[in-house]
Amino acid sequence: MVPSFTYVRAKSVADVVRQLAAPGARVHAGGTDLMGCLRDGIFKADKVVSLSALSDLKGIAAASDGGLRIGALTTNNEVATNPVILERYAGLAQAARAVASPQLRNQGTIGGNLCQKPRCWYYCGEFHCVRKGGDMCYAVGGENQYHCIFGGDACFIVHPSDTAPALTALEARVRIAGPGGSRVVPIGQFFVLPSRDPTRETVVERNEVVTEILLPPAEPGLRSSYRKVRGRGAWDFALAGVALALLMRGGTVERARVVLAGAAPVPWRAQAAEKVLVGKAITPETAAAAAEAAMQGAEPMAKNGYKIPMFKGAIVESLLALA
Prior knowledge:
Blueprint: E1 6-9, H1 13-20, E2 25-28, H2 34-40, E3 47-50, E4 60-62, E5 68-71, H3 76-81, H4 83-88, H5 90-97, H6 102-107, H7 110-115, H8 121-124, H9 163-169, E6 173-178, E7 181-186, E8 209-215, E9 222-229, E10 240-249, E11 252-261, E12 268-269, H10 271-277, H11 284-294, H12 307-322
Parallel strand pairs: 1-3, 2-3
Antiparallel strand pairs: 4-5, 5-8, 6-7, 6-8, 9-10, 10-11, 11-12
């Protein structure tokens, strides 16, 4: 049962920021994550601040630099079906299409997809884990088959977003509004590792709100994709996923971004794999070498070692398909 709260429909971004200053205030966008968290008792909300009236946070439009502006309230389905995104940023469209189920894609927003809470069953259950301010991660000695193989430190969640790895590969930026105005954060600096603070997922402060995502201009020769491996065909989170953004020149990789989903508490850049790819044509041998490099430094837990060959296969298939 969802506990009672005060509901406010904000009239502007400044009003949102003002309302969020109240103790216990939470943002409501699509609500697909918020309402589940409230129902499950993951956190409480004394006030829910709705963004639904803010039309300027909706839609997809060209940016002045030739890139693209995506309002934070744009639904995942709108991102998945937008003709410009499909043509220039295919990996993002594929990632948005991989989110949850059709109903949730039509309700959930891209801003919410970036900021959603982890789906660790200990965090979502009745366990006072380190992410809730406790002193231990129950996954370390428990059921950890869906937990991370990179970046675990005190907390071993995996980041649940599909759009976040694609946006990281595409070098997006995130605009955040707060009491001091707005700031733009490169998406690689948007997410917070447990080694920095195990109680937070992003750099968004309590009285701030994400307002838009900015994509850089799509250079000629840019190819991108997103591959998601999951237990079910829909309404499931990634067991292993890979987002690619390759800048190709004459059949050779000039620049590469390889970002893993379902691997770490944040979208995880496989920089060793990127180095393997740059300056080479994508052949089966190059793809296999990149996949091996991507798994360097992986530290599987007791029950999730299967992720390593799964990631390798997904990376090889994605690279060859993109070639």
